[in-house]
UniProtKB/TrEMBL annotation:
Keywords: Leucine-rich repeat, Repeat, Signal. Its main location: other. It comes from the Eukaryota. Residues 1-23 form the signal peptide. This is Leucine-rich repeat-containing N-terminal plant-type. It is found in: Cell envelope. Pfam families: LRR_1, LRRNT_2. InterPro entries: Leu-rich_rpt (IPR001611), LRR_N_plant-typ (IPR013210), PGIP (IPR051848). Residues 29-65 form the Leucine-rich repeat-containing N-terminal plant-type domain. Belongs to the polygalacturonase-inhibiting protein family.
Length: 332
């Protein structure tokens, strides 16, 4: 065999080896079988047309496989904005390496939050939003100890907020807004075991007072707007906190703000449409406010000058009891 033939043979072997290697199905067979069941359960939608049994599932749309350290198991299932109807398939619980699960902007997705999700002990990111899911927020979510982000917004969920959510040691954001949740904010939300999460509970039917225990926490963002909450919310504030955004608008809060100091880091403060009384403290001129609204309350006195307070127009202040000074009328 001459030298040229040897080189060609070697190149042919290398090409064949690479072709076989590149065409190797990385997808775990158990995961593939589970995914095909999920597709069938969702009535084989066009959105999942790439899910073909003869192809590598790691190349399928809406999926992500992990690297070799987890044997290329499926770690993310993200189904978003497709023409999909039905309920969340129970087979999602049979993807044991799943870290991300998303069903979002699927208006024909109905039923309750699938109980088999409780089996996904590696789950870090759970987003079930902009659907027609109904029923309660299940208590089992508190068992997902690796969960870092939970979004259940823009659904038709009802019932109370389970206190078990406060036991999640790694949670960084709880987004439960725009549902039909009732009852009070759990007392246990004043004692998250890890980092204090962003807490967004707006556009529900929550009622009663805010637990005093929440005053012990230094939130980054709080949104309790458009509920039926009442009483004192002053414990959420404090000059030494590092909070960036507080929205308590359109509730029934009733407390005196005259001696309330707000975080020096605060960028967003919305208190409109409540029953808040007192004078706006001079200390409120110190934070770098970018949005501010205290309209439709029972505030009185002179609006302090300086800082950012005069950069907001009269709509941020009007419909109060006797508030005056720029940008409102001059105090008499």
């Amino acid at each position: 065999m001459d030298k040229t033939t040897t080189v060609l043979s070697s190149l042919l072997f290398l090409f064949t080896f690479l072709t076989i290697s590149l065409s190797k199905d990385l997808c775990n067979q158990n995961d593939k079988n589970t995914l095909l069941k999920i597709k069938k359960s969702l009535n084989n939608p066009y959105h999942l047309a790439s899910w073909h049994p003869e192809t590598d599932c790691c190349s399928w749309y809406c999926l992500e496989c992990g690297d070799a350290t987890v044997n290329h198991r499926v770690i993310a299932l993200t189904i978003f904005s497709g023409h999909i109807s039905g309920q969340i398939p129970p087979e999602v619980g049979d993807l044991p390496y799943l870290e991300t699960l998303v069903f979002r902007k699927l208006s024909n997705l109905t039923g309750q939050i699938q109980p088999t999700i409780a089996k996904l002990k590696n789950l870090k990111y759970l987003r079930l939003s902009w659907t027609n899911l109904t029923g309660p927020i299940p208590d089992f979510i508190g068992q997902l100890k690796n969960l870092e982000f939970l979004e259940l917004s823009f659904n038709d969920l009802s019932g109370s907020i389970p206190s078990s959510l406060s036991t999640l040691p790694n949670i960084m954001a709880l987004e439960l807004s725009r549902n039909k949740l009732t009852g009070s904010i759990p007392e246990s939300f004043g004692s998250f075991p890890g980092k204090v999460p962003d807490l967004r509970l707006s556009h529900n039917q929550l009622s009663g007072p805010i637990p005093k225990s929440l005053g012990n926490l230094d939130f980054n963002r709080i949104d309790f707007s458009r509920n039926k909450l009442e009483g004192d919310a002053s414990m959420l504030f404090g000059a030494n906190k590092t909070t960036w955004s507080i929205d308590l608008s359109r509730n029934m809060f009733n407390f005196d703000i005259s001696k309330v100091e707000i975080p020096k880091s605060l960028g967003i403060l919305d208190l409109n449409h409540n029953g808040i009384t007192g004078n706006i403290p001079v200390q409120w001129t110190e934070p770098p406010l970018q949005f501010f609204n205290v309209s439709y309350n029972k505030l009185c006195g002179h609006i302090p000058t300086g800082g950012k307070l005069q950069t907001f127009d009269s709509y941020s202040y009007f419909h109060n009891k006797c508030l005056c000074g720029a940008p409102l009328e001059i105090c008499k």
